[in-house]
Specification:
- The protein has 4 helices and 7 strands.
- It is α+β, with helices and mostly antiparallel strands.
- It has one domain: Gcn5-related N-acetyltransferase (GNAT) (Aminopeptidase, 3-Layer(aba) Sandwich).
- The protein has a 7-stranded mixed β-sheet with strand order 1-2-3-4-5-7-6, with helices on both faces.
- The longest helix has 15 residues.
- The chain is globular and about 40 Å long.
- The model has no long low-confidence stretch (mean pLDDT 94).
- It comes from Enterococcus larvae.
- InterPro entries: Acyl_CoA_acyltransferase, GNAT_dom.
- This is GNAT family N-acetyltransferase.
Length: 144
């Protein structure tokens, strides 16, 4: 049986096995501010989602990751649905996420109702990466 809960300090070691982009200090903020979730199956954490606020007002999923042995089983979809419902309950009408154009996640996001919303290309040598695609989803009418 699985459940989703807010990230806690006790999740630190697990969190950093999946998320190597988040600085330690930012993890502490995610715990403090409740801006991260852990998906637990049979008492073992298997996935995570973290977010921030784009323009200080629009929830923006900055990381969704399910451990490799638990992928392709609907857990990512469950985490996104949980987060979307939470954001709707907090009064938000729109959510966002992004992924690089060379990653498969773009197909997943479209499949669960996200629409393409443009891209960002950074060519500064130290920060260069493939184009980042942005996606939005309106929450209006959902979870009624």
């Amino acid at each position: 049986m699985e459940h989703i809960r807010a990230v806690q300090e006790k999740d630190r070691d697990f969190w950093f096995t999946l998320d190597n982009h988040l600085p330690e200090a930012e993890f502490e903020k995610k715990v403090r501010d409740g801006m991260g979730y852990v998906l637990v199956k049979d008492g073992v954490p298997i996935g995570l989602l973290r977010y921030n606020l784009f323009w200080d007002s629009i929830p923006f999923c900055t990381m969704l990751f399910i451990g490799s042995t638990s992928q392709q089983q609907g857990y990512g979809k469950a985490l996104m649905a949980f987060w979307e419902k939470e954001m709707k309950q907090l009064g938000h009408g729109l959510v966002m996420t992004s992924t690089q154009v060379d990653e498969e996640a773009q197909h997943f996001y479209r499949k669960i109702g996200y629409q393409d919303a443009g891209g960002l290309l950074i060519t500064t040598p130290e920060y260069e990466q493939p184009m980042e695609m942005f996606f939005t989803k309106e929450l209006k009418g959902q979870f009624s």
